[in-house]
Amino acid sequence: xxxxxxxxxxVALSAGLLATSAHAEAIPRLARHGDATQLxxxxxxxxxxxxxxxxxxxSSLPYLDRQWPxxxxxxxxxxxxxxxxxxxxxxxxxxxxxxxxxxIAQARAHDTRLVxxxxxxxxxxxxxxxxxxxxxxxxxxxxxxxxxGKVQEILSPxxxxxxxxxxxxxxxxxxxxxxxxxxxxxxLMIQVENEIGMLPSARDHSADAEADFRKPVPAAxxxxxxxxxxGNWETVFGKSAATDELxxxxxxxRFVEAVxxxxxxxxxxxxxxxxxxxxxxxxxxxxxxxxxxxxxYDIWRAAAPSVTQSPDIYYPDFTHWAAQYDRPGNPLxxxxxxxxxxxxxxxxxxxxxGEHDAIGxxxxxxxxxxxxxxxxxxxxxALIDSLSPLILAHQGQGTMRGFRPPVAFDGTVDEKxxxxxxxxxxxxxxFVDPWTPxxxxxxxxxxxxxxxxxADEFLVAGSGLTLxxxxxxxxxxxxxxxxxxxxxxxxxxxxxxxxxxxxxxxxEPDQFGVQRVKLYxxx
Length: 523
Hints:
Elements: H1 2-26, E1 29-33, E2 36-41, E3 44-46, E4 48-52, H2 61-65, H3 68-73, E5 78-84, H4 85-88, H5 98-109, E6 113-123, H6 132-135, E7 143-145, E8 151-155, H7 160-181, E9 187-194, H8 207-213, H9 219-224, H10 233-237, H11 241-266, E10 271-276, H12 297-303, E11 308-313, H13 318-323, E12 333-337, H14 345-356, E13 360-363, H15 376-394, E14 400-403, E15 418-422, E16 425-430, E17 447-452, E18 457-463, E19 466-468, E20 473-484, E21 487-493, E22 505-506, E23 513-521
Parallel strand pairs: 4-5, 4-13, 5-6, 6-9, 9-10, 10-11, 11-12, 12-13
Antiparallel strand pairs: 1-2, 2-3, 7-8, 14-17, 15-16, 16-19, 17-18, 18-23, 19-22, 20-21, 20-23
Helix pairs in contact: 7-11, 11-12, 14-15
């Protein structure tokens, strides 16, 4: 009987472990696929075709409810929505998730996923979303100070009490999410804080911060930065604004890690931090210093390994910034891009998914788009959604490329053609359409992706691209079509004028198309 009991107990324990494992597998998570990192939802890879709400939209359920016709017309599959600390914990230790539950219910009713943005200690550097009981107790929750000693409305990340209070609230949020959504998985990811950064100095000069700044540089920070030696931050790195920013990044990162770990212990959804980008030639503090910026990626990774890093890109030079966040183990996710009314948004999305295996793209203030059904982003999202099984299958395999003309910070568009090689074939991609008058084209809006389907067949999708394949390469066939539920539905055969009698493959401007192209060599 004892042996039987032990055996049955082992079987029961094994079954319990399998059930736990199956539940863990079902939780949204990040996983490797070739050279890419993908977001898995319900055990399958998922592309976030998103839009971020304005800061206050999700704080009122009736107000949010009126936005859904616009959100659905834009073909979003995911909405990014803030959760405010002051709204869920108006009294210390007493939590009210009424509004959050309503947001989740509305998303489910509209068959839409959510990414939640934790507006905790900081939102755009400032501490305006913290509860009144935090705001009014400066002794317990000290504020940062500038280099000249002036107090700022920014909580000091060097304060243990602030770290503990934020982490406790965030853990309560994640515990509640697991209870109400753990089996439904409406919520896919969590953003920890929002656009962290120190102003107007490169670092915090409060009493706690000064004491921490004088301590020896942690070994993990030294290793991440490839430094050796001992001593405090100025001893190791020298006295400069750059050193101040390094320490501040470490301080912010350790705070975020404590908050993220508290939340992940309750419910381990993927988490990330977002960056308000810096400007060239501006000193730290002139921009929000020490956020998860490209030049601080390594120290942030060491300080906060439990989160990934993402850029909020409002500058015209989208490709310059996005490329710097595509790193091993750090999938490209753009939680905020310039507003969806911008003509460049569809090209940016197609390029990010095709060239950098992005897991998601999300313009800001999405509910304020005019004429959403006719917006180019709506059409681009419909196209990407139809292609998502192919895109996801080819991520990380070296069989997909994205194309769009780079734009400089001053808005100048680089219209030069680009070349790329996939398999045994080299293609040249032009952005100026050969059959449309130049003054009728918006070249910055042209973009798309190319997927190698087999040794000699390619899928070309997007708008405003013209592809040529060099001397001795012919177009065996060019078929227009579309994908429906993963199946190719063939349309016109484009042998004649549409390919300039076999000279090129052309996606017309101002519309989004898909073509399958088969190549051959002739002599």
